[in-house]
Amino acid sequence: MTQCTSLVLCLNPTGIQKEFLDYVKESRCILKVYTSEQLSDWKKVDLYHVLDIEAYKDSPLHIVFLKNQQKKAIYKYHPDKNKKSSKEVAYLIDKAFSILSDENRRFKYDSYIFDESIPEERNYNTTEFFEVFGPIFEKNLKYSTKKDMPLLGNKETPLQSVQFFYKSWRAFESKRSFDYFFVTNSMDNMNSYQRKEELTRQKNNIKKKSAQEIQRISRLVEMAYNCDPRLNHLNQKSVKEKLDIKNIKINPKLISNGWTENEIKILGCLIEEDKNKKQQHDWENLFSRFNLNNDAGKNYNEFLVKGKEIIRMGIKKSSSAPGFVPRKRK
């Protein structure tokens, strides 16, 4: 009896229910959500919202389903059917269908609307850490060029797997597209020279954006690394090493890009220890030791660049040396 009653109410809602459903329907109307200026530019609206398919953003979209949604949107927003609508809205519906029905164009659009935000660096308890960082890494995993990238795991994940996770993500390579970030609608009115200049500008901007994307991922990884309670527990058992950095002589040119003399001496001392032991540099291990002996919080990429720069320029460890003596090249 109860199930039948519920079914009847769904098919024939009461006055209050109908009023609520109408309110929800009206509040989702793109004419209410977006301004006329936004509706005239497809990059300023959510094309999934235009076709009323936000729930399917992470799902495959069948062409038949998209055509049905397009027809519904046209019927609802076509200027002949809705006096509040306009030709721009009709164009927007067609644009949404043309982009979301094409796999390549949809990928570019998804890259464009992707949420790039990363959490703030603060003290997280164990539950908070996995609730905050876990979904973010899963979300970014979509744009990894590698299919076997590890996930963050949980508090029971073995330390070896945790270290492998950070090692893998520090080498993250993104396949995210930035083509739609710099698309302009005015190229039709340009001459050949202006088009060439515009395409060059777009290419340079895409290159910069790609570099920023790697930096964003790097910040996310290092932030998670610094906040990870599994590694904090490990670090609590560790103590700072007694490094003899007083007699380290460095090239002044190494003091750049936010690196202080003390930080370079610490890294140089660690590199020299590896060299004296006649072993290959384990950069992951060096990075962990560097962070343990230094509170600057450098990310792995800039650490690696500076480490190789130190090796290239050479350092001198001598109490009697008057200054920097470059290492002789073989």
Automatic annotation (TrEMBL):
Which GO cellular component does the record give, naming just one?
cytosol
Q: Which PROSITE patterns match?
A: DNAJ_2
List the molecular function annotations (GO) for this entry.
Hsp70 protein binding; ribosome binding
The record's InterPro entries line, in alphabetical order, gives: DnaJ_domain, J_dom_sf, ZUO1-like_ZHD, Zuotin/DnaJC2
Q: Does the keyword Coiled coil apply?
A: yes
Taxonomically, which superkingdom?
Eukaryota
Q: Give start and end of each J domain.
A: 46-113
One of this protein's GO BP terms? Answer: 'de novo' cotranslational protein folding
Residue ranges annotated as transmembrane are none
Q: Which Gene3D superfamilies match?
A: DnaJ domain
One Pfam family here: DnaJ
Keywords for this entry?
Answer: Coiled coil
Name of the protein this chain belongs to: J domain-containing protein
Question: Upper lineage ranks?
Answer: Eukaryota, Fungi, Fungi incertae sedis, Microsporidia, Edhazardia
